[in-house]
Amino acid sequence: MGRKWNNIKEKKASKDANTSRIYAKFGLEIYVAAKQGEPDPEANQALKVVLERAKTYNVPKTIIDRAIDKAKGGDDETYSELRYEGFGPNGSMVIVDALTNNVNRTASDVRAAFGKNGGNMGVSGSVSYMFDATAVFGVEGKTADEVLELLMEADVEVRDILEEGDSVIIYAEPDQFHSVQEAFKNVGVTDFTVAELTMLAQNEVELPADAQAQFEKMIDALEDLEDVRQVYHNVDLGE
């Protein structure tokens, strides 16, 4: 599938290594998920997904507990989940998911991040049709054949299983996220190198060096925005 998920995660974590930004974003995401449903992840699937993803980024338990306690406290803050679509240099495609309590601010910030870096915002649906919602997991200590056998025995359907370095990467339909998770849990595997619900480009494109540098600058600008949760794109960055 061309996405080297561990390298992507490590790059993001490295960029945020000396700041609390990534933890603050997870704190907000956990708070909103807990507030929209039950604060118990076993009764709230959206919260369970966020917590599994937070675990792969080593988000401290204090951050998680504080966010859930805030949701339990009946705080009346209201946040909207938004999706923006746009184009980068050379027609590259980008999807931006945001979580905000100020829609006008977020729209303005996202538009500026696109515009200042050779891109432009598109209308809803202008890009997303070229992406597929996908559940992605990464596990270590097993071969692709072992993972395939494990999932077949659990009657879990997946799209693809690939080896990437020391990890095996599993691609599945979004509604199989918890089935994959439970299949591994049942054999004692509870730690994942990747556990994401993502938007996967159907086809990746390569950019010439100058356009790629500009594109990466645009992606960094989008990811740096306080309200932005996730950024997806169709460019092969050679990671």
TrEMBL record:
<dbReference type="InterPro" id="IPR017856">
    <property type="entry name" value="Integrase-like_N"/>
</dbReference>
<dbReference type="GO" id="GO:0006355">
    <property type="term" value="P:regulation of DNA-templated transcription"/>
</dbReference>
<comment type="similarity">
    <text>Belongs to the TACO1 family. YeeN subfamily.</text>
</comment>
<keyword id="KW-0804">Transcription</keyword>
<dbReference type="InterPro" id="IPR029072">
    <property type="entry name" value="YebC-like"/>
</dbReference>
<protein>
    <recommendedName>
        <fullName>Probable transcriptional regulatory protein SAMN05192533_115124</fullName>
    </recommendedName>
</protein>
<dbReference type="GO" id="GO:0005829">
    <property type="term" value="C:cytosol"/>
</dbReference>
<dbReference type="GO" id="GO:0003677">
    <property type="term" value="F:DNA binding"/>
</dbReference>
<dbReference type="Pfam" id="PF20772">
    <property type="entry name" value="TACO1_YebC_N"/>
</dbReference>
<feature type="domain" description="TACO1/YebC-like N-terminal">
    <location>
        <begin position="3"/>
        <end position="74"/>
    </location>
</feature>
<dbReference type="Pfam" id="PF01709">
    <property type="entry name" value="Transcrip_reg"/>
</dbReference>
<feature type="domain" description="TACO1/YebC-like second and third">
    <location>
        <begin position="79"/>
        <end position="235"/>
    </location>
</feature>
<keyword id="KW-0963">Cytoplasm</keyword>
<dbReference type="InterPro" id="IPR002876">
    <property type="entry name" value="Transcrip_reg_TACO1-like"/>
</dbReference>
<dbReference type="InterPro" id="IPR026562">
    <property type="entry name" value="Transcrip_reg_TACO1_YeeN"/>
</dbReference>
<dbReference type="InterPro" id="IPR048300">
    <property type="entry name" value="TACO1_YebC-like_2nd/3rd_dom"/>
</dbReference>
<dbReference type="InterPro" id="IPR049083">
    <property type="entry name" value="TACO1_YebC_N"/>
</dbReference>
<dbReference type="InterPro" id="IPR026564">
    <property type="entry name" value="Transcrip_reg_TACO1-like_dom3"/>
</dbReference>
<keyword id="KW-0805">Transcription regulation</keyword>
<keyword id="KW-0238">DNA-binding</keyword>
